[in-house]
Amino acid sequence: MTYKLLALDLDGTLTNRQKEITARTLAVLLRAQEKGLRVALASGRPEQGVLPLARALRLERYGGFTAAFNGGKIVDLSTGETVFQETLSPEILPRLYRFAKTHKAALVTYDACIVTEDEPDAYLELEARINRMNIRRVENFLDYVSFPVTKCLLMGEPEKMALLEGALRRELGDGANVFRSEPFFLEVMPPRVDKAYSLSKLLCYLGLRRKELCAVGDGFNDLTMLQYAGLGAAMKNAQPAVKKAADYVTRHDNDHDGVAEVVEKFILP
User: Fold this and answer.
1) Which residues contact 157 (CB under 8 A, 6 or more apart)?
2) Contact 168/87 with Cβ under 8 angstroms?
3) 3-class SS of residue 166
């Protein structure tokens, strides 16, 4: 099968533990793009956190895409056009805010900075470091967030986030898509929006078929795109549930060019 679109998760997949693309993986992806492959960076990160890696891969030159906020916003980097975007209903935010306060969970969203009422802790500082964004503490979250929101994030100890995941789904019902991207990050997205749903919109935009999509990931939020893609590859370091859902599991982890392994095995001649 000829794969024409490659969707890549970032943290734990494309990047190593230093949040960098290794030299070999970079070289392999540039070579594949020169042969016509389109690349979409599908990440829970906000746009600002995806763009440095998109530039390193020269996606603007090769007609690639950012699919930030777990696919909540897709941008064609060669034109700057927003291909797809959905936002949370404004009535969801007060309910989410009350839930976070009741359960003493840190709540953030994004504009040019990471916006929160909460005191920065290790998880919030990790999110800022990953995305190379500053933290803006505001006096009142609901008063400040008057702009359209594609994603909110609750964060805390993994055991607590696991318990809150089901409770928050029940609280928000059909008004939002709730899932964990990492054991300590609980994502809140517009209904239906996940990486698979957004990639289906991108395939329509490109006139491609589902079987022409290859997706690579490691985390809970990658499950849907791996199941949806013509070929879903899980990293060696992936969560067990992700490996179980994948068509292929790499022999190498994200520190040792697992993405390059997939591209060389299935995409490059």
Assistant:
1) 184
2) no
3) helix
Q: Name, in order, each residue with C-beta under 8 angstroms of 23's C-beta and a sequence gap of 6 or more.
A: none
Contacts for 129 with CB less than 8 Å, ≥ 6 apart: 19
Question: What Å distances lie between residue 26 and 102, 162, 176, 204, CA to CA?
Answer: 45, 35, 36, 27
* Contact yes or no for 106/154 (Cβ under 8 A): yes
Partners of residue 87 on adjacent β-strands: none
Local structure of 40: helix, strand or coil: strand
> Largest alpha-carbon pair distance within the chain?
56
Report d(CA 140, CA 57) in Å as an integer: 39
Helices (H), the chain: 23-34, 47-56, 59-62, 92-102, 122-131, 141-144, 158-172, 195-206, 223-228, 240-245, 258-266
**Tell me: the pLDDT tens digits for 53-106?**
999 999 999 999 999 999 999 999 999 999 999 999 999 999 999 999 999 999
User: Which of 215, 216, 155, 217 is CA-nearest to residue 180?
Assistant: 155
The SS3 call for residue 184 is coil
What b/e string do you get for 47-86 counting C-beta neighbours within 10 Å, with b at 16 or more?
bbbbbebbeebbbeebbbbbbbbbbbbbbbbeeeeebbbb
User: Using the 8-state DSSP alphabet, how is residue 136 labeled?
Assistant: E
Q: Among 251, 252, 232, which residue's Cα sits nearest to residue 1? A: 232
Return the sign of the alpha-carbon dihedral for residues 145, 85, 43, 40: negative
Nearest Cα neighbor of 202 from 211, 192, 213 is 213
pTM for the model? 0.89
